[in-house]
Structure formats: C-alpha cells, structure tokens
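Supplementary notes for students who missed Thursday's class. We covered one full example, reproduced here. Read the sequence, then the structure, then the short commentary at the end.
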Amino acid sequence: MTEKPFTGRVQHLFKHITYEQMAEESGGTRSASWWRHVQLEQSDRFNPPLLKDLPGIAKLFRATEEQVAAMIAHEFYGITRFPNLRSERERRFAEDLNALSEEDADLVLSLVKRLSRKADVGLNEQAS
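Structure (token representation):
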C-alpha cells in the first residue's frame, strides 16, 4: 500500500508535538515508543490500534472516531470503500466541530438544539 493516512497524520503531528505528548494526548492509548515506530514507518514493529483506542486517537488527531477508523482500515487492511453513515451536512461540519474546545462545543450544541426547536415549531404552524 502506498497511501498511509494514519502514519501521515502522526508524521504531521510530530512536527508540532513529541511522542510523549502523543501518548498523553491520546489518553495513553499507546506508548511514546509505539507512536515513534508509526512516525518512522516501521510498520513491522507495531500493531494496528484496537477499537477501544479510537476515542483517544480521535481526540489526538482532532478527528471523529469514524475518520480514524477509516484511516486504520485503509492503511492496515487495504479497505478503501465502505459506507459512510454520516449525512453530507455532518461530514461538512465534523472537522470544525472537532476543533472546538468542550465549552465551545457545548455552546454550539445548545444553539443547534434551540434552532432546531424553532424549525419544528415553524413546521407545526405551517401544517395547521
């Protein structure tokens, strides 16, 4: 396989943070040594991440768990086609939403919920 999206993301992160920080920011899903092996493309020395590791790696990558799973499926198993269960709108918003702090994400969620209630009220009024 020539494309390595997972390794590419790790190599990009390494320009900004250390292996130890990767281990810490991923919630300890993998050791600093493991991240080093990935970054150096020593694929024979490490195993693909487990499903239980996806939340921590997604946090480190500032990506969704689905995006991380797709990177792993592509790089480690050669799977390039699989159904996308997210709507186009969700996919458009995902990257920006994942970049927000928890506080800002909560604020956006409350705004979206408020706006969706107004939309529901408007639809109900039109139906009457």
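Commentary. The chain has a mean pLDDT of 85. Helices lie at 5-14, 19-25, 32-39, 54-61, 65-77, 88-98, 102-127. If anything here is unclear, bring it to office hours.
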